[in-house]
Amino acid sequence: AAMSRTAVETMMQMANLSVKDLYVVPAPSMVKRVRETVYEWNFDHDAESEKREARIVTSIHLGSMPYAHTNIDVQCHIALYSYLVIVLDDLEIPTLALDEFSSRLCAGMPQLHPVLTALNENLSRMSDYYPPYTSQSILISTFQFINACAFERTTSSMALHPDAVMFPGYKRIRSGVGEAYIFFAWDKFRFPDITVYVQIVP
Q1: CA–CA separation, 85 vs 171, rounded Å?
Q2: Residues 6 or more apart in contact with residue 97 via CB below 8 angstroms
Q3: 77-111: burial string, b at 16+ Cβ within 10 Å, e else
Q4: pLDDT tens, position by position, 87-139
Q5: Residue 73 CB: number of other CB atoms within 10 A?
Q6: pTM of the predicted model, to two decimals?
């Protein structure tokens, strides 16, 4: 974390940018809605209060700072998605529940864990905020992330083969949701035409 922070700070200094120039204060109404929903979910009630608060604050900033150009409803949706992804990565969700997430979502079957139930609902409403190609790309990115979470547990004791030099990078890409966060920038209210932005995604 310290190395990443130093690299970002150095880059910003070279570009003559200040953190203050990039900081966006989240809208109070958005913060209130996110907090109320998270407290209603109550997934991590056993977690230390500081840890839970850190998840909430991180989610609020992920939903607001990079996407300040979107409306409050979109920001709330991104923030809640972020919270669910963070909790999913932190909590001990049964591997079977992760393995069956995508098939259960596609079949309209109940999920096997409350966090996955909430994520299922969040994803099912993605088309309220994004055009078809974009919302489906977010869904696919999320499927890959959950699949990677299950895969990491299954292969946690697997030794890296000396010739598999590309595997760590592949694993890292799969275990992130980078494409989802790229597409979050392009809601259907301001960007209904995907040809305006889709070529910059790669």
Answers
A1: 17
A2: 111, 112, 113, 116
A3: bbbbbbbbbbbbeeeebeeebbbbbbebbeeeeeb
A4: 988 888 899 999 999 999 999 999 999 999 999 999 999 999 999 999 999 99
A5: 14
A6: 0.85
